[in-house]
Amino acid sequence: MKNKLKIERAIHNLTQADLAEKIGVSRQTINAMEKNKYVPSTLLALKIARLFKKPVEDIFILEDED
Q1: DSSP bridge pairs for 3
Q2: Kindly report the CA angle at 15 between 9 and 16, in degrees rounded to 5?
Q3: 3-state secondary structure (DSSP) of residue 24
C-alpha cells in the first residue's frame, strides 16, 4: 500500500513528530509508513484521514499486489 503522507504533511506544514503527536503514535511509525514499510491499521488510517479532512482513499492507495 502506497500513501501520500509526506505530501499531506508538507501541505499542512507538519513534521513527522507533529503528525505523530496529533494521532498518538511515534515519529518512527510515521517514518515507516512514509517509506511503505508499515501498513497502518484501519483505525490509524481513519485518524489520519480525519486530521487531513480527506477520504482515506485520497491518502492511502491500495495496489494490485496488496
Answers
A1: 60
A2: 90
A3: coil
